[in-house]
Design brief:
By secondary structure, the chain is mostly helical. Helix content is 50%, strand content 6%. Helix 1 packs across helix 2 and helix 2 runs antiparallel to helix 3.
Length: 134
Amino acid sequence: MKGFAETEGELCPDCKAGPGPKNARVAVGMPEQMWHTPDCPQYVIMQINWKEGSRRIEEQDQWAKGVFPAAHARLKQAAAALPPGTAAQPFVDALSELVQAQADTTGFVVLHRWAEILERHFPPELPNPDHTTE
């Protein structure tokens, strides 16, 4: 056993690396991959971009965590100020519940939770027993 995958891939136009114990394999599509030496300019740029992207995501996450509670409170206040029974009420209720579901999780509200909430506020049309067709 050599300790690294020997799978063929595209040759990097800069370093021309292939499978090797010190080289890095990067997916460039499915099932394509490209090997790079540790000092390959293309690979170094990819690593810089990955780190920069991670840093931006972390900054956005921190900003959102600071802003979300106050924005959520304003939403609840605005929803409470609307007169009940208006045509917008199902939309307001669904949005309020979705935002609360997001507040209750540390990640994303999963699709089945969205579906449950929307189904509750916007149920499928039931047949009207008073309406008959000929």
